[in-house]
From TrEMBL:
Database matches in InterPro entries: Split_barrel_FMN-bd, Stress-Dev_Protein, YdaG_split_barrel_FMN-bd
The General stress protein FMN-binding split barrel domain, residue ranges: 16-164
Entries under SUPFAM superfamilies matching the protein: FMN-binding split barrel
Protein name: Pyridoxamine 5'-phosphate oxidase family protein
Species: Chryseosolibacter indicus
């Protein structure tokens, strides 16, 4: 299949999709977490992924009294947008969010940096866990590393050719 730009689009199946999610998120775990997908304006905020599990679920820590949690309670559909400009990697994930107050899961995904938002640490009574189960995802990245891509871009400008260094793909879960 070809994209709008004429590039080949890869279709990744379940395990390939999960591996690709983990690879892309490993390089940049901050995303724009968007709720209220049917209402304008969309509600978007930066969030840090604590974990991508072996089923491809994204796990976040959140204040149980936050607007985000209320919005998820009203409509669990969410969109996550990742951008790793330095490596030319981009990812868009559509999925359904579920909220938990499971202390064991908080313990499992806790990181010391989370204390900046939860002053009482792992035992903060305001912590909730959000799981986003992906339903649809699309990614864009390069075939080569950034240095090789930059050289190819410069060569295409000088040579008057179109550069074809991109890979994009749809993920199935």
């Amino acid at each position: 299949m070809k994209s709008e730009e004429g590039e080949d689009v890869q279709h990744l199946e379940h395990h390939e999709s999960i591996d690709k999610l983990k690879e892309l998120v490993k390089h940049n775990n901050i995303c724009l977490f968007t709720t209220h997908l049917t209402d304008v304006p969309l509600q978007t905020r930066p969030m840090s992924v604590q974990e991508v599990d072996d089923e491809g679920n994204f796990w976040f820590l959140s204040d149980k009294d936050s607007n985000k949690n209320w919005e998820i309670d009203e409509d669990p559909r969410v969109q996550l947008f990742f951008s790793n400009k330095g490596a030319n990697e981009y990812l868009s994930v559509y999925g359904h969010a579920t909220m938990y107050t499971d202390r064991k899961k908080v313990e499992d995904i806790w990181s010391p940096i989370a204390k900046a938002w939860f002053q009482e640490g792992k035992d903060d009574p305001h912590i909730s866990v959000i799981k986003v189960a992906p339903e649809d995802a699309y990614y864009w990245d390069t075939k080569n590393n950034k240095a090789v891509s930059l050289i190819k871009i410069m060569a295409s400008v000088v040579g008057g050719r179109t550069m074809d260094d991109g890979i994009e793909g749809k993920m199935k879960f």
